[in-house]
Amino acid sequence: MLHLKAAECGAFRLRRGERRACIARSMYGQTFSFFRKSREKDVYLICFQKGAVFMLREGKSTVGDFRIPSGCAVSSVFSRSGKRLDGSDIIRSIEIMHDRSNGLGGGFAGYGIYPEYAEQYAFHVFYNNVKAKEECEKFINEHFDVVNLSKIPIRKIPQITDEPLIWRYFVTPLHTKLAESQLDEDEFTARCVNRVNTFIDGAYIFSSGKNMGVFKAVGYPEDVGRFYRLDEYAGYCWTAHGRYPTNTPGWWGGAHPFALLDLSVVHNGEISSYDANRRCIEMYGYNCNLLTDTEVITYIFDYLVRRQGLTLQEVANVIAAPFWTTIQNKGPEERARLTYLRNVYSGLLVTGPFSILVGFTGGLMALNDRLKLRSMVVGEKGDMVYIASEESAIRVIQPTLDKVWAPAGGEPVIFTLDKK
Fold first, then answer.
1. How far apart (Å, rounded) are the C-alpha atoms in residues 263 and 298?
2. Least confident of 104-108, 118-122, 312-316
């Protein structure tokens, strides 16, 4: 018997020849039971949405233009004491939410995984061909001192195919180039990453932080984790994503996390304000090349935190700003602060359903849209923090918790390393 718990809607596959019993409970408390054997040639989705249950042939639609709007899964593990954990737990956590993604993208971000190169930027790069690699390496050598370079170790598995060339570089900006640019190290590096991703065809730097790295691919996330041998890395923070793309193609660069410098974002949702946000952020020198809303969210965080100096609480008040009626009921000082943020950064208000996890050096942040249209659960056990789309993804790696709760819409949950 399979038990599914859904906040608003959900689905699972009934594969060829599979016999499965199910109980599904909707947000209204109604219970639906069915026991069905699939036909030999067809694959069905058993779907339940707002109190209704229906079965669709996969790839077909009998209820308008149906898709799974709550698809995608996010998960994270964070040690406040800084204890380094291998990637096994985060793989197990995201794997239990397998049916929230469809094999078109999965990925992970790990923090504290490169202690031997903690002072260098770690570039993870996809190349479509050797020509792109040669052109990109020429650019990197002209602007950075390359301390070490190698292919990123992978484990060949049948579930992950058609991989590009995947290389890793530990680099430091050349002093002459840095002085000539009159920029700080982070801004110089971010501009170089943007230039490669915009102007070198077939090359994409998908990770560029210090002592952290992003690993992503087309495939189910648990397969991606094994492909990249994440059990051989250790870090104090891990985030993970299983993708169910709704508006953009599934490709290696479009998988989550998206990252710039040490900031990484995984996201479940669909941003209705994407075009307005994209036009706004591109005014400040960012180029949105990847045709996905998560890229825009990453650049918004980078712009507001690194370049504008806002706190994470203030960033949450920008992208998931309270409604004007809520602001009017605040005290004079708080009302003035929230009004200022909404007016000055109006183009960066993110609308539509979302739940996001933001990793950064020394910490982790979780945030829902202000109406909480996507699920997110937080659990704590000792110094460990677990955040995921479903509680089951936490319980599978930590069955007993000291505390578990669901953050309110627009309420940021921020954890940082303990001060020593």
1. 7
2. 104-108
Residue 78's DSSP bridge partners are 237, 385
Active-site residue flag, 72: yes
Which residues fall within 8 angstroms of residue 60, CB to CB, at 6 or more apart?
A: none
Do 368 and 411 meet the contact criterion of CB atoms below 8 Å apart?
yes
Mean pLDDT, residues 208-217 taken together = 98
Instruction: Calculate ∠ Cα 317-323-326, nearest 5°.
Output: 95
Rounded to 10 degrees, the C-alpha dihedral 221/227/233/236 comes to -10
163-196 b/e (C-beta count within 10 Å ≥ 16 → b): ebbbbbbbbbbeeeebeeeeeeebbbbbebbbeb
329, burial (CB in 10 Å: exposed 0-12, middle 13-18, buried 19+): exposed
List all residues 6 or more positions away from 405 whose beta carbon is below 8 Å from its beta carbon. Answer: 377, 378
Average pLDDT estimate for 43-72: 43
- The structure tokens 């195919």 sit at 161
Euclidean distance between the first and final Cα of the chain, in Å? Answer: 48
The whole model's pTM is what?
Answer: 0.83
Of 67 and 186, more confident: 186
Catalytic residue among 72, 192, 237, 280: 72
Give the model's pLDDT for residue 240: 96
In one letter, which amino acid is 32?
A: F
Please give the Cα distance from 193 to 415 (Å, whole number). Answer: 28
Distance (Å, whole) CA 147 – CA 212: 16
Instruction: Tell me what pLDDT residue 103 has.
Output: 85
How many alpha carbons lie under 13 Å from residue 233 in its C-beta half-sphere? 30
Q: How would you classify the pairing of strands 354-360 and 263-269?
A: antiparallel
User: What proportion of the chain, given as a percentage, has pLDDT over 90?
Assistant: 75
Cis peptide before 221 (omega within 30 of 0): no
Q: Does the pLDDT at position 128 exceed 90?
A: yes
The contacts of residue 240 (CB under 8 Å, 6+ apart) are 73, 74, 75, 76, 90, 91, 93, 94, 106, 107, 108, 221, 225, 266
- Give the pLDDT confidence score for residue 186 in this predicted structure: 98
Helix axes 312-319, 332-344, angle to 10 degrees: 70
